[in-house]
């Protein structure tokens, strides 16, 4: 990295931090209803509702973006994303199935674990079903992910129909994504897992750069390819599972954000990953603000906003890849 490019990168990161601060201020200050900051009720709403929800939006946005960047690097496919690969749906299915068989008190402590297990199992299924003669087929990967995502959503609805317990009444929460349930324990869990995973992934940024050259090249350059892939697969699935346990299936953040980051800072993962983290936080904080204000006083699920933004972008990427193959 030259001195001029480093300065440009620092300016970009500062610019992103400034935008994030503004987005956070807007998210806390604005809402579906006006709040009197000088009243006890207004301060209660700010401290107990809006600030925790904003923190959750930041954590979820950072986590999904980081996981998306990792999946795109490992599969060397710009269409890879925790939502499209079915990993988010697998985490949600794990929670919903567990909700039908676990007691309410035990379930509170088991939700993150159930979600992580569901995400990990789905990740293994997607990877194994996408192998063709020992090689990973990228287009098969995408098709398998989409099919498993549809299957798991259907299974979630099926389980709800069979087990009509109090825990499953909010099953729609898992299908469309929400940031409503931001309590201190959930925030602490997500923050802890994110910090650990982010540190471990950032340490592997140089090896991700080498992997982007191809697995054979990475092997000859001394990288233990299979070991790195397994570690990063696990970390990305762990992060996705924990996020799904607190926010449901918020789609397309992990798909769109890495592309925005590449346009701003390039493809070097040492610069790309930090940029993804910041942009992911910005995107979800602003999406949550839109969800709470666009139809005020009614609130939309934040997953609806991210899908509106992400679906056209996904179609654009798919069409662009098809055009490149034809050419």
Describe this structure in words.
It is built from 13 helices and 2 strands; from the N terminus they run ααααββααααααααα. Helix 3 (87-101) packs across helix 10 (225-247). By secondary structure, it is mainly α. The chain is globular, with a radius of gyration of 20 Å. It has a single domain (50-319), classed as ABC transporter involved in vitamin B12 uptake, BtuC. The protein has a two-stranded antiparallel ribbon.
Label this structure with key terms.
327 residues; two-stranded antiparallel ribbon; 2 strands; mainly alpha; 78% helix; ABC transporter involved in vitamin B12 uptake, BtuC; 13 helices
The CATH architecture category equals: Orthogonal Bundle
Dominant shape:
globular
Number of DSSP-assigned strands: 2
Give the CATH level 1 class.
Answer: Mainly Alpha
Mean pLDDT: 82
**How would a textbook summarize the main sheet?**
2 strands, antiparallel
**How much β-strand is present in the residues?**
under 5%
Q: Order of strands across the widest beta sheet? A: 1-2
Amino-to-carboxy terminus distance = 33 Å
CATH superfamily: ABC transporter involved in vitamin B12 uptake, BtuC
Number of helices: 13
Using the coordinates shown, work out and report the CATH topology. ABC transporter involved in vitamin B12 uptake, BtuC
Uncertain runs: none
Please state the CA-atom Rg, rounded to the nearest Å.
20 Å
H-E string:
HHHHEEHHHHHHHHH
**Share of helical residues:** over 70%
Question: How many domain modules?
Answer: 1
Describe the protein's topology.
Blueprint: H1 3-29, H2 40-75, H3 87-101, H4 104-129, E1 131-132, E2 135-136, H5 138-162, H6 171-176, H7 184-203, H8 205-211, H9 215-220, H10 225-247, H11 253-265, H12 269-293, H13 302-326
Antiparallel strand pairs: 1-2
Helix pairs in contact: 1-2, 1-12, 2-7, 2-10, 2-11, 2-12, 3-4, 3-5, 3-10, 4-5, 4-10, 7-10, 11-12, 12-13
